[in-house]
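Quick one, probably user error.
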């Protein structure tokens, strides 16, 4: 593609994205294609000769768009959000244009130093102590894996890296912890059976006394506690493990505490929600995802550690071909995680933080929380619905009950979810809480307004009425 064509299509695609973001509401939120439908429309072998951009774009509209589930739709209430923003998209565009690969400082000093700066801004925003250092990882799953590996090395005096495991090391998390903990435990070699699930209380938060009991039992059995993963804002219900008592236990037994605040960490920038991270200073590491709720394109996960040296000793490698003359005085982020090559993610984050300012981001987060509260209150007033967990942030867990017997409720709510999602106006997902099929509605889309939440309420009530009438 020559320079003129690049300009032509560049302008065209920026226009396309701007129009898309403005009109995304016209699409059904969740793609309605059947499995295999997209693949069937694509050639099974690569094009041998150049194709015109116009044809590629035509196929993009015709083949790809129907298979897109629209995460930026204001009716997005599923999973957790992955919201973006025009500023972030532009930062991403520039990062692609620069095409840097920031494995070491000299491969783009600005990429490293901007990352140091924006991560320190985020540290201040969520109230972590000075001295903690941050690095951008692709996802919270990777950050949690890094924390598990660092914990493994710290507790063994960096021996597993050298000679492998000598004895089982134990990891503790509540049974509401995200599946990435189990995945990390498996990858890091602890073995799934060494992941100890700690019971939770009525609000789905880890019970610190149960954690201490499990650690003591392991010690009595000659097993070595290595890491506790506490969750702030669990995936199923938004529960908050109490970090202060958990942190005190971790300090007492010399166990690494990693905090997974993937979704709810963003809310900690609000003074009224900072309680959720109370005690975080007792932890050793923490992750939250600007790519979930802080207007930054996927992927961008903010990983913080209290003692960066443990992390870098865990990951450092020194092949001759990567050595530079400034290694002693700069950060080489290749030693702060798993991958060597690194995208310039700090750029989009910098764009977001500067265009919105902390106050602008706070306003959006507050609006989301307020809308979730409206949704919860309206459902409560309806009387046919049950709220299944406290609403601390912007996630509401609920089910249709309407006086029906317990044994029909799972099926009833499964049908309700199907009917609601089939309207295409909104997209919600589900979980189970205490074995009960539970619907989750999360407000986190940048453009979601009160009218979208009211429309969701209307549809949910209407479909509930239809179902109750027909069953
Ligand atoms: C609490 C929690 N931790 C971790 C993750 C994994 O996030 P990622 O996709 O960034 O790995 C999620 C995803 O929703 C989550 O809810």
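Nope, works fine. Designed sequence:
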């Amino acid at each position: 593609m020559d320079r003129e064509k690049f300009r032509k299509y560049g302008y065209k695609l920026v226009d396309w994205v701007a129009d898309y973001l403005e009109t995304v509401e016209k699409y059904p939120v969740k793609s309605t294609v059947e499995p295999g439908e997209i693949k069937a429309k694509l050639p099974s072998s690569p094009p041998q000769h150049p194709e015109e951009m116009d044809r590629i774009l035509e196929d993009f509209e015709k083949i790809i768009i129907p298979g897109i589930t629209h995460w930026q739709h204001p009716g997005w209430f599923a999973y957790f959000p992955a919201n973006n923003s025009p500023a972030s998209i532009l930062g991403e565009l520039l990062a692609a244009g620069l095409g840097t690969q920031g494995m070491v400082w000299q491969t783009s000093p600005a990429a490293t130093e901007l990352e140091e700066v924006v991560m320190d801004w985020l540290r201040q925003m969520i109230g972590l102590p000075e001295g903690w250092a941050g690095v951008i990882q692709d996802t919270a799953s990777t950050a949690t894996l890094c924390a598990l590996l660092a914990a493994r090395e710290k507790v063994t005096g960096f021996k597993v890296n050298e000679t492998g495991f000598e004895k089982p090391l134990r990891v503790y998390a509540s049974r509401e912890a995200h599946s990435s903990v189990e995945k990390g435990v498996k990858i890091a070699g602890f073995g799934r059976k060494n992941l100890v699930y700690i019971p939770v209380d009525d609000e789905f938060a880890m019970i610190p006394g149960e954690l201490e009991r499990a650690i003591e039992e392991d010690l009595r059995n000659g097993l070595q506690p290595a890491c506790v993963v506490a969750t702030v804002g669990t995936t199923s219900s938004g529960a908050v493990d109490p970090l202060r008592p958990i942190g005190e236990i971790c300090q007492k037994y010399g166990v690494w505490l990693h905090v997974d605040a993937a979704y709810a960490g963003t809310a900690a920038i609000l003074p009224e929600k900072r309680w959720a991270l109370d005690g975080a200073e007792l932890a050793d590491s923490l992750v939250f995802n600007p790519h979930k709720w802080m207007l930054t394109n996927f992927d961008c996960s903010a990983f913080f550690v209290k003692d960066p040296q443990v992390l870098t000793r865990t990951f450092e490698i020194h092949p001759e071909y990567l050595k530079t003359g400034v290694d002693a005085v700069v950060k080489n982020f290749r030693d702060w995680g798993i991958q060597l090559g690194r995208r310039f993610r700090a750029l989009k984050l910098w764009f977001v933080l500067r265009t919105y300012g902390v106050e602008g981001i706070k306003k959006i987060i507050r609006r989301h929380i307020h809308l979730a509260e409206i949704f919860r209150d309206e459902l409560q007033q309806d009387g046919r619905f049950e709220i299944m967990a406290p609403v601390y942030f912007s996630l509401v867990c609920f089910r249709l009950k309407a006086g029906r017997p317990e044994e029909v409720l799972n099926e009833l709510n499964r049908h309700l979810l199907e009917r609601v999602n089939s309207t295409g106006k909104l997209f919600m997902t589900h979980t189970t809480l205490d074995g009960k099929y539970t619907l989750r509605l999360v407000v986190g889309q940048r453009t979601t307004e009160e009218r979208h939440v009211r429309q969701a309420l209307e549809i949910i009530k209407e479909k509930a009425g239809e179902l109750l009438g027909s069953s």
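The mean pLDDT is 97.
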